[in-house]
Amino acid sequence: MIGHPLSITGLHKTYPGNAHPVFDGFSIEVEAGSLCAIVGVSGVGKTTLLNCVAGLDHWESGIIAVGGEPVPDGAEARALYRRRRVGLAFQQPHLLPEFTVRENLRMPLLIDGEVTPEAEVWIGQLLSTVGLGDLGERLPGQLSGGEAARVGLVRALVRKPTLWLLDEPTGNLDPATAEEVFGFLLGLHAELRPTTLLVTHNPGLAERCMRTVRLGCV
Ligand SMILES: Nc1ncnc2c1ncn2[C@@H]1O[C@H](COP(=O)(O)OP(=O)(O)OP(=O)(O)O)[C@@H](O)[C@H]1O
Ligand SMILES: [Mg+2]
Fold this sequence. Notes:
Layout: E1 6-13, E2 23-30, E3 35-39, H1 46-53, E4 61-66, E5 69-70, H2 75-85, E6 86-89, H3 101-112, H4 117-129, H5 145-155, E7 163-167, H6 175-192, E8 195-199, H7 203-206, E9 211-214
Bound molecules: adenosine-5'-triphosphate and magnesium ion.
């Protein structure tokens, strides 16, 4: 598993009703398999950028291409794009509370069809990689914040996406736990090499990524 390159060219994005654009001709090239930190003050457009790349939001003009293929228009094509290409994780892991860790990790695959024995092995590997090999049968309410964050990170990788889009995945954690979860994030990235955008307010974490893109600065 290795990511595709991400290319954003001349992105223009203004939310309906807002006077000012969030992006006014933003461009960036991210190499395949890179780990790129996205930083910048609150409100500058970090989440908006991830939402556009994920095909969850619309923009007026500009091209976002993954592996040379533009993110498609149209609800169905976008849904397929997201299923095939994109893994998202957020500040809150949003695990389904009445399902076990393993069941939560099967969810993205159930949407596509059945969960094969190979996929069960893959889920087990992902859990082991983040030190949760023994916690697959726990309910989310029986996990610490750091453990839940790790489940959120791997759930975004279950479908083997080429893009791993992470919006402050450690933002909710105390510094020691954030550091621990970031270590697992680095390990997953080194092993699987998805092309990764990591939004973070933590300069110490950003400087350990391969590259930092600061939004809002010319
Ligand atoms: N749905 C929306 N409708 C209108 N304006 C929005 C919407 N979502 C975001 N905005 C505005 O767009 C700008 C960028 O917001 P965004 O959430 O991308 O910022 P951010 O960099 O992720 O901030 P933070 O660090 O606080 O998460 C802000 O000015 C925000 O108010
Ligand atoms: Mg945000």
